[in-house]
Design brief:
With 192 residues, the chain is mainly alpha-helical. It has one domain. Helix content is 42%, strand content 10%. The chain has seven helices and four strands. The strands form two sheets. A two-stranded antiparallel ribbon has the order 1-2. It has a two-stranded parallel ribbon with strand order 3-4. Strand 3, helix 5 and strand 4 form a beta-alpha-beta unit. It holds the Pfam family Bac_transf. Belongs to the bacterial sugar transferase family. This is Sugar transferase. GO terms for molecular function: phosphotransferase activity, for other substituted phosphate groups.
Length: 192
């Protein structure tokens, strides 16, 4: 029953975000095209629930060709691969807004473990694989608990905790903390 309610909330809130923020989508698209070459959107294959592969949508924040990541190297605030408008989009999490399309398609949820790159699956053990038992989310427990300031294993622990202790109440708390992260930054939520 909770998962059916979660899906209904996902659809309703995603439609609201899509319609209400449409002027922002247009503004961001213009800024991306005006400040750097390349497409407006960044699409990448990611493993979803039960390892089902889907294309995640984001506003492009990096210079074309920068998506090739060095293993275990996060994109940090001062990364020179990030465009000038990309820094603002990443800091405010606006780059993630197009994922409401993934939510509407049923590939993602508003809250859940963040979808990782396919190559990361090679390092999963049985415990970490539990994070794939729920749809990935636009935000998640790890994202409101320090995110890039946590090492990968700690993020995985948060994801597994979320899957094992899922409730609508936990989703609501994560959504409210996400607002705090957007307003005040990830570093304010380390170890909270």
């Amino acid at each position: 029953m909770q998962k059916a309610i979660k899906r209904l909330i996902d659809i309703i809130l995603s439609l609201i975000v899509l319609v209400v923020l449409l002027p922002m989508w247009v503004t961001v698209a213009i800024l991306i095209k005006a400040t750097s070459e390349g497409p407006i959107f960044f699409l990448q294959d990611r493993p979803g629930q039960y390892k089902k592969i889907f294309k995640v949508y984001k506003f492009r924040t990096m210079k074309p060709g920068s998506e090739k990541m060095i293993k275990r190297q996060e994109v940090m605030k001062d990364d020179d691969r990030v465009t000038c408008i990309g820094k603002l989009l990443r800091r405010t999490k606006i780059d993630e807004i197009p994922q409401v399309l993934n939510v509407l398609k049923g590939e993602m949820s508003l809250v859940g473990p963040r979808p990782e790159r396919i190559a990361s699956l090679e390092e999963y053990n049985d415990e970490i694989s539990k994070r794939l038992n729920m749809k990935p989310g636009m935000t998640g427990l790890a994202q409101v608990s320090g995110n890039i300031h946590l090492d990968l294993q700690d993020r995985y622990k948060h994801d597994v905790y979320y899957v094992e202790h899922y409730s609508l109440w936990l989703d609501i708390k994560i959504i409210f903390r996400t607002v705090g992260v957007v307003l005040f930054g990830e570093e304010k939520y380390i170890d909270k």
